[in-house]
Amino acid sequence: MLPLAAMGVLVKQDQLRRCWQCGRMKGRALVHDAWSGWIYLPVLCLCDGITCARCKEGAIHRPISNRFDEANGTVLHIPHFGYLFPCIACRRAETQQAQRGRAGPG
Question: Which residues of the chain have pLDDT under 70?
């Protein structure tokens, strides 16, 4: 996911609400855009996403959309090629497989 560098400052979260299904934030966020000034961006949760292309079970964020990153309070943009990103379960499996490969024979 690519951070919206020009839209780094989130100033209004009161139109964001927590999704009762996935627990992520969704709604509208007021952010500052270097080109347009203050604008509202739609923010989607994981439930509005698509199915993981790898496992066909997990969810990923919808491409060409925005999500709210609670860790740093910014809005992140999901690019058009975002469908290539694996879901959380697939990422975990890949990480574990890579760690086992580095451990060497045992």
Answer: 1-11, 103-106
Q: Which long-range contacts (CB under 8 A, 24 or more apart) does 19-26 make?
A: 19/45, 19/46, 19/47, 21/45, 21/47, 22/46, 22/47, 22/59, 24/67, 24/68, 25/68, 25/70, 26/68
CB-CB contact of 44 with 62 (8 Å): yes
Report the pLDDT value the prediction gives residue 28, as an integer from 0 to 100: 92
Structure tokens at 42: 């739609």
8 Å CB contact between 60 and 29: no
For residue 10, what are its two tokens? 């989130």
On whether the CB atoms of residues 86 and 52 are closer than 8 A, the answer is yes
Per-residue model confidence (pLDDT) at position 70? 87
Are the CB atoms for 99 and 82 separated by under 8 Å?
Answer: no
DSSP codes joined into one string, 44-98: --GGGSEE-TTTSSSEEPPSSEEEEETTTTEEEEEPGGGGGS--HHHHHHHHHHH
